[in-house]
Design brief:
Layout (H helix, E strand, L loop, with lengths): L1 E3 L13 E4 L1 E3 L7 E3 L6 H71 L1 E4 L5 E8 H10 L3 E2 L5 H9 L8 E6 L7 E2 L24 E4 L6 E4 L4 E8 L4
Length: 236
């Protein structure tokens, strides 16, 4: 070992010393040689010990913080799970109620429907509602507001109405002014039988109904509540 002690001019030793070099030679067969290992002062060792204690404290605080965060996250997840379970249960009840209401509505609607059969075997289902509501109800019946393609069908529908003096919606509209199309397939109407001066009443009159006592048509506001005629291949 080689120690070198630094001195002042007045031959007084410094309070601190440094180990300049440790020179070890291992004389075994491995011939391992370790040298130039630094020595620490007391102050440096104390600093390292203090730093180690601080790191231990930081590690402890971080561990507690992570544990707290994990607990908070788990609590939040549990709360969200409970909310989702409650929402699922509530939505399930709402869906079941809507399905029940639809069944009741269809039964009530069917109880008001008058069934008539054309010579071709097509069934017409007749009840009452505004035009857009009537169209939706016809779709619920897997049908559509009736499409009239000739005068004989028009006369037959008019004569088999439940209420002879009431207007009845049919599936004809002109959402583009002057272009009268059938709602079922958007085809242009080739057969039209307007009541006097009707068929061009303007943008506020886009839906078509039987006049009432006559087998003629008139265009009016779609918001008016009339009977209507649904058409499909069969009604249950």
């Amino acid at each position: 070992m080689l120690f070198r002690i630094l001195q002042t001019d007045n031959n007084q030793q410094y309070k601190h010393f440094f180990c300049i070099r440790f020179h070890f030679v291992h004389k075994s067969a491995l011939g391992l040689k370790i040298q130039n290992l630094p020595c620490l002062t007391h102050e440096s060792k104390k600093d390292l010990d203090d730093a180690r204690k601080e790191l231990v404290t930081v590690d402890s605080v971080l561990g507690k913080t992570v544990g707290t965060l994990e607990n908070d996250v788990q609590k939040t997840v549990n709360i969200m799970k409970n909310h989702l379970v409650t929402m699922k249960s509530t939505i399930g009840k709402i869906i079941k109620k809507v399905e029940t209401d639809l069944i009741v509505l269809k039964k009530d609607l069917k109880s008001e429907v008058v069934l008539n059969r054309t010579p071709s075997g097509i069934v017409h289902c007749i009840t009452r509602a505004p035009w857009y509501e009537a169209e939706r109800l016809c779709r619920d019946f897997e049908g559509y507001l009736v499409k009239i393609e000739n005068s004989s069908e028009n006369e037959w529908l008019h004569s088999t109405r439940k209420s002879k003096s009431s207007g009845y919606w049919i599936g004809l509209t002109d959402l583009i002014e002057g272009e009268w199309r059938w709602s079922i397939d958007q085809s242009l109407a080739t057969f039209k039988t307007w009541y006097s001066s009707y068929g061009s009443k303007g943008h506020g009159s886009n839906c078509v109904s039987f006049v009432g006592s006559y087998a003629k048509w008139f265009d009016t506001s779609c918001k008016v509540g009339y009977y209507f005629i649904c058409e499909r291949n069969f009604c249950n």
